[in-house]
Amino acid sequence: MTVPDPLLFGHDATPGIVAVHADLSGRALVWRRAGDDVTLEQARFRSWLYARDLADVEHLGGRLAWDNDQAPLGVRELSGAPGSLRYLLTAADGRQLRHSVLRGASHRLGRPITSLHDLRGYYSVGAVEQYLMASGRTYFGGMAFNDPHRLQFDLETTSLTPDTGRIFMVALRDNRGFEQVLEARQAHQEPALIHGLLAVIAARDPDILENHNLMGFDLPFLMGRAEKHRIALTLGRSGGPPGVWRVQDGRSSPHWACAGRELVDTIDAVRRLDLPSASLKVVSQLFGIAPEGRVYIEGAQVAETYRTNPALVRRYALQDVEEVEALARRVLAPSFALAKMAPRPYHRLPYAGTATGMLEPMLVRAYLQAGHALPGEIAGHDVPHQGGTVHLYAQGVIPRVVKADVASMYPSLIRHDRIGPACDPLGVFLHLMDQLTALRLHHKAAAKRGDPGEHEAMQSAMKLVVNSGYGYLGAGRMALFQDRDAADRVTRRGREVLAQVVGALRGRGMTLIEADTDGVFFSTPEGWTEVQERQLIAEVDALLPEGVSLEFDGRAQAMLSHEIKNYVLLRGDGRLELRGAAFESSRTEAYGREFLQRALRCLLSGDVPGVRDAYLQSLHALDTRKCTNAEVASRVRLTKSPEQYEATRPARQEAAYEALHRLGRSWRAGEKVWLYQRAGQGLTPLDVNPDGRDYDVKHYAAALVSGYASRLRKGLTPEDFRQVFDRSQQPGLFDRPFGAMQPVWEPV
Fold it and tell me: pTM higher than 0.85, yes or no?
């Protein structure tokens, strides 16, 4: 445990790297921190490119030097199977190398080729990744999470877009005890505020800039306003290129970078988690990190509140960055740990895929260091890959529910049965699986003992990558070391093990509800205790292969099984847990969410009259307009730019875009807007009248049943469901008393 593994951590253990900027000219800038001091190192590196053959560089003739790493353009033939990427092209200037390849490919194919992504038979990565893979360096060697200087900043603005609003406040905080609020009460003060923000960042000189939704809102807004005032927005450190630029990662939602500092968004890390919302306020409450006396102001009301009570808004803004700092420690720590292993810049890891984004770079680094060819393109299969299995055995409301977790089934089977990609002759994949698992168990045990250090973050980081191993094998052309046959072996063994678990539970008299390779939900006989449940799970666990374990993962009073992966649990302490898009979605309206919480709690408690009351109360709130427009509005993500929508509008009009188009509103692709159904007007942006009550009552009353009550349908008989959610409050001739109704379930 004390000797770093070069395949896992890289072969150069240089400590304290907090930022790297590199370009294809072969220049690398490396910022390193030692205590309070930051130094800038300048290095040269050779750009590299793996190729299957040399057809596109034949035109270089004698300018392409064999086995000469000092020549302007060089090539080495590596050991590897036929068809593999066994030529390593290197250059002092990577721009020249790429230009030469693209020129040759254009001539060969008879059409212009402008990107290596348009060609098969090559493997390349960005300049920073090239430098890290070739040098064997990684970020944050020898550092704890709080050792880098981290600064959080958050904007308060008068609208959601820089075209229609301005910045009137910026709250700042860092992990060295600093906090400050910058303000621009008048519009003409905004340029001074932006200059002030840049001056604080330059003076505090942080290594990392953080915020929640930094990439989706704060940075684009700040860039838009800086451009409006013709202010050069330099967030990076001196010594590197100025400005902020978009990361070229193929994502539709933009991410931004600068030289010398890492720009990191906590919302990227939150989206990896199975949480009901990614909202900062919601997540902070879920994690229990909201400051004491937290001020809550609706987003649309912040600017108005500032006019009458600026002190309250200052407190609100400072609490925002306080929450971000606490949230970063909670959700970014695994990415920080992974940055010590994966040859990628830290800012990419919170949103990078764990398989191709973390595991694959480690594999490529090992092959590059060993001087070995990379796998070539593998022929496709006629038969689709047989993925994991999931079974639904019962639907409705089932009492006395237990969850048994099948811990790390696929990673355990990979290691136990030695299932690795056939195109990995160096055995790096299985080596990484073994070492990551060993490290995870080490840190997990240390965290359980309460040893000092960031053991929980380390074990979470290891778990992320280990659990991606199976997915990587079956990723097809997306993965360099993919192996469909190996992935099929893993899932086949997984199905066998799951069948063993299900059979053992069924044979012991349990009622099965849902089962997949992550775990099994089942119902126990009446009167069973937790001790009996744990003993049962231990008995079944003893039957499983070495390395695969079945663990007790909690119990619940009752479960509403709606459909696969969509269910609600009522825990023993009265907590409701909602899982799946049927019950939790970013588009769920507040009035519907409130109804579901009350109705589900009643249904799972066997209180059908309470379900009826919840429906009538929600219906009454709509009919009497006790709800505001904000409480019935839903959030919609706009995937098309105005230009893209205008091109498709003649053939197909879409309600969300039409609502903005009708009012002459501008928007940008990726923006999220709140909309509601306005009486007589149709879909309307919420900011037209957020506190008003001019919504379409008939529409929302119907949606209360079709969009929300319908999710309880499987917990009642069809006759009872019709009666419970009948708007008429006059009982029918054949209606049953609500008190006589009971939740139901049925086998699937």
Answer: no
